[in-house]
Fold:
Amino acid sequence: MSKPKTMMIDDVKYIREDAVNTVPKPEGSYVIVRCRNAGVHSGYLKHRKDGVVRLENSRRLWLWWSKFSLSGLAMCGVLESNKSEVRFACVLPWIDLTELDVCEIIPCTIEAKASIESIPEHKNDQFEDE
Structure:
């Protein structure tokens, strides 16, 4: 039997703490990784070991619009109003990034992950005529 996520006491609604947090645990979770030289990537954090951060099913995030920063992208996803301008690369089975190059690893909410994954892969020939 599942636990209720909310309850009312004296006309005040209370939400269970574990029902509020939609950010998954680090290893195996969907993250955004910002690097000094290799750009920005999203994907599933496989591991951090031997000086390497491995992402699986990763995409390079080349151009995006979010609520102010990468943190906003990780929490809220792509701004719907600018979705047509967003450019994300193809999905790679995995990529290794050196820990020396990695500046930050930001966990994504379930909503942000879905938003990032909803962006079609950018193709080289998309803008040949422009």
